[in-house]
Amino acid sequence: MSTKKILIVAGDGIGPEVMGQVERVIGWFAKHRDFSVSLEHELAGGCCYDVHGVAITDTTMEKAMKADAVFLGAVGGPQWDHVPYEVRPEAALLRLRKDLELFANLRPALCFAALADASSLKRELVEGLDIMIVRELTGGVYFGEPKMIEDIGNGERRGVDTQVYTTSEIRRIAEVAFELARKRSGHVTSVEKRNVMRTGVLWYEDVSRLRAERYPDVKLEHMLADNCCMQLVRDPKQFDVIVTDNLFGDMLSDVASMLTGSLGMLPSASLGAKDSSGRARAMYEPVHGTAPDIAGKGIANPIASILSFAMALRYTFERGQCADLLEKAVDATLAKGLRTGDIMQAGMTKVGTVQMGDAILAELTQLNG
Ligand code: NAD
Fold first, then answer.
1. Which residue, of 215, 230, 262, is where some domain finishes?
2. In this structure, what CATH number is given to the domain that contains residue 229?
3. By Cβ atoms counted within 10 A, which residue in 141, 149, 281, 331 is the most buried?
4. Is the pTM of this model over 0.85?
5. 10 CA to middle of ligand 1, Å?
6. Catalytic site residue 328?
């Protein structure tokens, strides 16, 4: 296997703490599973602003462009609330997403049996839940022009955002969803509002056409976005892959993720288009932020970041069996009752960030035989 280049951008707050555990897990796979990897580290976010006066440097961007995958911890914190807008920590995230053209955001909602009682829904509704939300990330109403607030006289103002999608934008995100569905249960639910939005009609037609042309083996269902919200809390296990636009994806992925319990458990991937060699740019990160309230205390849950590495094994490095092994190790650790503070339950053993990392590594070694 060729050596894979990973750029680690741990960021601020708990970012370096949780990424430290990811590096230990990467080290385990390098040693035990012939996973050849070279790691580089760079600053981004508030820590980068403190040193360089910007949220991310051009050098780091160049390295990100060349990496097989970027692993991001999280950026931001109250100490940078007053820095100029264009160099605020979040600008690093936006630049990475934009310059790497990461148009597909994948957020799994996976419910580990040991944590089924942490969900706000009944155990039987969420136990074994495994949904993948595929959100279009670079188009739609967050980016469409015109986008403005204008004075229209008589003390009135008018705010405008524009929802706009083209066929090629719709087809490339739908392709990601269909390809994923083929590796899962072969079922895609496409979500829009074709009853009231022209972009919804286009979305419906283009996704249907792509399926007829190239993915007749995948079951395709269409659902209105408001109904999808309702169905996610009524009967979430009916879904496999959900594909939707930027705005609806923002909402639906947050609803779906909370079905599974804590922010500290949620991984994500953002993928770009494949180039002529078949390589797609990719960034992996936990859904949570820098958790300033617990930063530096050694108590953050590293599982969201570790599961993000499992996604990288599956979607960038094509090591699906390694990803399965890592997810099993997390499952086994939770089944033994180990919990960080955010997922603590009565009768369980409370551990810190490093101890959680130790336990997952021990399970990996045991499962590896
Ligand atoms: P947050 O996700 O950082 O924290 C929300 C709550 O969840 C906090 O109580 C925190 O302690 C807890 N939490 C989060 N991750 C945890 C983990 N791994 N283990 C245990 N507990 C965990 O969200 P916030 O408080 O709204 O934001 C804090 C900062 O992070 C802000 O500056 C925000 O802009 C930034 N942020 C960054 C990203 C990113 O870099 N992708 C995402 C969201 C927020």
1. 262
2. 3.40.718.10
3. 281
4. yes
5. 14
6. no
